[in-house]
Amino acid sequence: MMASMDSNAEDARRRALFSATCSICIETGFAMAERVAVESLVEMLQSCLTEIARSSRAFCELTGRTEVLSGDVFMALVEMGINVESLGPFIKRSNRITLPTPAMAPRTTMPKILQAGEKKPLPSYIPEHFVAFPDPHAYIRTPTHKQPVTEYEAIREKVASQKRDVERALTRFIAKTGATQSLFADDTTLFPLIACKPMSQPYLCALLPKDQVFESDEEPFCSKESAGSSPSGDKRPVGNEAAEVDNPYLRSVKMPRKRKR
């Protein structure tokens, strides 16, 4: 976009210099000229004007100012060897050709694909060359979440489908982790059924550790001598065997000791 604007400005400046060069040639007495010759004269005129502007800027900065005055331009003309007094008769010549004022080029605006609403104009305290406000749609809060379903039938269907999914997932989990029965003798993995095994005391499964093996579960080896020394067949646990039971619900009751006062 900026490159196109620069090229348009350069073309407009080039056309103005071309028109000025052609008018000077006509005033001098030329009736026609080749395009290449006119382009060469345009380059010479552009170089002359550029040098005058550069010298004027240098004289302006040399005196400690930031804006160029007419005296700086006169000094630049004198520095280049141009007679300043001859400019008056040249301006007041009778056969001068007045060039028309160049028309303002229309500002190219980028077409928008979607225009939502009307744009808000800039306030009075903001200059016009500033960027305009975006579309009003940019300030509108647009919800991105989906509205919940409030229909009774849809809610019941969704609950029923979720219930079926949960039951199916639970059945598959129990079939993979527990004992199953198969309808087909050839393939036991086809349509497995959960085995129906009634349990007399189901709460003991949660209390008894089945996935761990402890050394205390093994029967201690007792020699004949130790067995014969025990009076009247006393089968009490030897040592601290009762304290080695892992399940706290199966341990023997311990009475608290009475402290002497």
Automatic annotation (TrEMBL):
Signal peptide span: none
CDD domains cross-referenced by the UniProt entry: HFD_TAF8, TAF8
Listed Pfam families: Bromo_TP, TAF8_C
GO biological process: transcription initiation at RNA polymerase II promoter
Top-level taxon of the source organism: Eukaryota
Residues in Bromodomain associated domain copies: 10-86
Keyword Heme included in the entry's annotation: no
UniProt entry keywords in alphabetical sequence: Nucleus, Transcription, Transcription regulation
InterPro entries (UniProt xref): BTP, Histone-fold, TAF8, TFIID_su8_C
Chief location category: nucleus
GO cellular component terms listed in the entry, alphabetical order: transcription factor TFIID complex
Subcellular location: Nucleus
GO molecular function, one term: protein heterodimerization activity
Region (Disordered) location: 218-261
Family statement: Belongs to the TAF8 family.
PANTHER family linked: TRANSCRIPTION INITIATION FACTOR TFIID SUBUNIT 8 (PTHR46469)
Protein name: Transcription initiation factor TFIID subunit 8
Organism annotation: Ornithodoros moubata
